[in-house]
TrEMBL record:
The keyword Transcription regulation applies. Residues 4-141 form the HTH marR-type domain. It comes from the Bacteria. Pfam families: MarR. Keywords: DNA-binding, Transcription, Transcription regulation. It comes from Allofournierella massiliensis. This is MarR family transcriptional regulator. PANTHER family: TRANSCRIPTIONAL REGULATOR, MARR, TRANSCRIPTIONAL REPRESSOR OF EMRAB OPERON.
Length: 147
């Protein structure tokens, strides 16, 4: 008889699997998987025309606290992946920008995500995969995370 695994634990296991795969890419760049995700989001926002990205934008996108993001940005700036300048829109904020080193990183992450998803969803039909996306979209909406 198969052991019952609560849904929360299932999500945690899947999250760890994603992180393990992403850590390989992150290690190549000298980053953590969380830093890699933040850079991916920043590069995606810039590529899609967001004029200025500030720390609050990244905190909301990655669902992390202000102190956590502050330290992450400091480390990424020290490693040469981002630059921080005073915002021209609101001088109280810092504009966070990708350097050439991290520009368009979101494209590589999208490919990595697709490969990981393909591995994790092996055995699911295209319709089942579409349903999975629909279910998780609903769950994200339920917790107030709007795509």
């Amino acid at each position: 008889m198969a052991e019952y695994i609560p849904l929360g634990r299932r999500f945690a296991i899947i999250d760890r699997a994603f992180k393990q795969h992403l850590n390989k890419k992150a290690d190549q760049l000298g980053l953590t998987s969380v830093q890699l995700r933040v850079l991916g989001e920043l590069s995606r926002m810039e590529a899609f025309g967001v004029s200025e990205v500030n720390q609050r934008d990244l905190e909301q996108a990655e669902q992390v606290t202000h102190p956590t993001m502050t330290e992450m940005i400091k480390r990424l700036e020290k490693k040469g992946f981002v630059t921080c300048t005073t915002s021209t829109i609101d001088r109280r904020y810092k504009k966070i920008s990708c350097t050439e080193r991290s520009r368009n990183l979101y494209l590589e992450l999208a490919q990595a995500d697709e490969a990981i998803t393909k591995t994790l969803c092996a055995g699911l039909s295209a319709e089942e995969q579409a349903e999975l996306i629909r279910f998780t979209d609903c769950m994200l909406d339920n917790i107030g995370y709007h795509l």
